[in-house]
């Protein structure tokens, strides 16, 4: 069985091709999903990739959450389908209520584009199981609204339940508690701001550390 990973394209999406390529490099079949089509095409997992969906009008991810495909994603997440949101995809998942908190303008209001080190805080999710807990991975970050914010109660809940998946080693954007990525309570939905799909080959990326995220999803699908 070859797992099928769906990659959504919204108007303004930039990184769907890269996400699909990363899925293929991990051994999955990449399936294109269109924002205006509610059919998830029987995929085994879904990636909501980065970019500027609908031009980030209103605020990042605010319009994309209403797309027909996202209604299906929300329903599928309730059934345990693995969902990954990267950068703008993370913003969309928060706007859709699949993950708590929000992504706000970076501290200093500057767009940040550089490679960052992340620590793996939780390796018990559908998208992080291939990493050792406490491992360091190097991936690119490119965002203007990447500062994770939430109430103290939500932050304490995330910490207490082990749902902070990735944490910045050196905080580049003012994210609360250095949070770079979080998961749902069941560990099947994960959102992170940096871009693992741009770190899949040592020749072209800062590392191939991002591949572990996609291998993890294959494990989750094949052992379900």
TrEMBL record:
Alphabetized CDD domains for the sequence: GATase1_FGAR_AT
Keyword check for Protease: no
GO cellular component, one term: cytoplasm
Protein name: Phosphoribosylformylglycinamidine synthase subunit PurQ
InterPro entries: Class_I_gatase-like, PRibForGlyAmidine_synth_PurQ
Signal sequence annotation: none
Active-site residue numbers: 87, 195, 197
Keywords: ATP-binding, Cytoplasm, Glutamine amidotransferase, Hydrolase, Ligase, Nucleotide-binding, Purine biosynthesis
UniProt GO molecular function: ATP binding; glutaminase activity; phosphoribosylformylglycinamidine synthase activity
EC number: 6.3.5.3, 3.5.1.2
NCBIfam families to which the protein is assigned, alphabetical: FGAM_synth_I, PRK03619.1
Pathway involvement of the protein, from the record: Purine metabolism; IMP biosynthesis via de novo pathway; 5-amino-1-(5-phospho-D-ribosyl)imidazole from N(2)-formyl-N(1)-(5-phospho-D-ribosyl)glycinamide: step 1/2
Entries under Pfam families matching the protein: GATase_5 (PF13507)
Quaternary structure and interacting proteins, as annotated: Part of the FGAM synthase complex composed of 1 PurL, 1 PurQ and 2 PurS subunits.
Task performed by this protein: Part of the phosphoribosylformylglycinamidine synthase complex involved in the purines biosynthetic pathway. Catalyzes the ATP-dependent conversion of formylglycinamide ribonucleotide (FGAR) and glutamine to yield formylglycinamidine ribonucleotide (FGAM) and glutamate. The FGAM synthase complex is composed of three subunits. PurQ produces an ammonia molecule by converting glutamine to glutamate. PurL transfers the ammonia molecule to FGAR to form FGAM in an ATP-dependent manner.
Reactions it catalyzes: L-glutamine + H2O = L-glutamate + NH4(+); N(2)-formyl-N(1)-(5-phospho-beta-D-ribosyl)glycinamide + L-glutamine + ATP + H2O = 2-formamido-N(1)-(5-O-phospho-beta-D-ribosyl)acetamidine + L-glutamate + ADP + phosphate + H(+)
Domain of life from the UniProt record: Bacteria
Localization of this protein: Cytoplasm
GO BP: 'de novo' IMP biosynthetic process
